[in-house]
Amino acid sequence: MKKIVGISLGFGDIYDEGGIGKLHQPLDGSIARFNAVAKCKPELIICTAGYSRKSPTAPSKERKLSLAHQLNRYVTEYDQKWEHRLFTRPLCWSTRNEIRVGIKIAKCRDIDGVTPFVLVIASNLTHLPRICMYTKLYAPKNWRVKLVRARHHFSVLDHSLEPPKIARDIIYIVKVLWRLRRYQAALR
Question: What is d(CA 21, CA 155) in angstroms, rounded to the nearest whole number?
Fold first, then answer.
């Protein structure tokens, strides 16, 4: 039997005052992404979104509560049915790292080492191609990936930045693969 695991990606503060104030209105993209993942009824939802790009694991003046902890607060206050299925730790920053670390955490939950997962990740349509690229890179081959559309606001700037981010990440992947190839050739 396949286990369903969701990764809920961060998308800015859910609460005012760097995470410690009142709930933002209207609700932000993080909640739309969480709800879209939750509709697939996963056994576990992982959120590893940290505090900031500079310091994902430590609070800052601007953000006193990490994006992962803000999601945990939201679930505790408004959607308790997910409280015991939610894994939230401020471990990283960026879509690529949230997916990479989320998959690593899901693998640790796989005791028998054989059970394939259905990995569910939600975002808006512009962001999904990049998410697809990361899941192909990091998810084991026997896992099924289900990308779900979450309807949330993405600014014109955010939409326009996605193609350059895809190009940047393809260049990064090619460099890593090239280094691995050279390293393997040197070992022979």
Answer: 24
